[in-house]
Amino acid sequence: MHEMSIAANIVDIAREELGRRGLRTLTRVEVRCGALSNVVADSLQLCFEALTAEGPFAGARLDVVEVPLVLRCRSCGKTFAGTEGQASLWLPCPLCGAEPGHTVEQGREFFIQQLEAE
Asked: 116: how many CB neighbours lie within 10 A of its CB?
């Protein structure tokens, strides 16, 4: 389960950032998680809770904002939702029928959007 190492990295980044700003208590982390990031939000949540169960980060909340897949057709240039997840990459454009080869406009990202601390 790679979510544990991701959660550990989030905690490390938060600890480093709070140290830089002279803060001690983490209250909330918001991460953006793209549909193609291969991160299971529930598993990440559990791992984060396990890592922050005690100490100055106890009670910190992790909010995972899921970012949907958006593709751009290489033929007509229109964007459309990748409602079938990764399989959407191999489907024809729903607007013009062009063969797969679409560009991923959104859905690969995974990053910390916001940290809240005291």
From this structure: 15
